[in-house]
Design a protein that fits this description.
Length: 97
């Protein structure tokens, strides 16, 4: 387990998600701004939380600890993408109506 690579994974995954939110805002100005802002805030909180946990000094069972953190990152980013997808679908339904 390379801590530096794990931190890069955190930055890449959360950064990619925030870029997707920004893209939605750019393509749909004035639509669901409050909801998108809330999701981005949650993503930043997740980023900070994962970085803090990654910097925590682990003496034993490092591999298991970082495996758990990777799993947590995957689950929580999936949840964030699910919330974003819901907003996109709502916006698409409004556009058709």
């Amino acid at each position: 387990m390379n801590l530096r690579n794990f931190k890069k994974e955190i930055e890449y995954n959360i950064g990619d998600f925030i870029e997707d939110c920004a893209l939605f805002q750019t393509l749909n100005p004035g639509k669901a701004e409050d909801k998108i802002s809330e999701i981005v805030e949650d993503a930043v909180d997740l980023y900070n939380d994962l970085k803090d946990k990654a910097n925590f000094k682990v003496d034993a069972a490092k591999r298991a600890y970082f495996f758990k953190l990777r799993k947590e990152m995957a689950e929580k980013t999936d949840e964030l993408y699910g919330r974003l997808s819901k907003i996109v679908e709502e916006n698409r339904a409004e556009a058709k109506a």
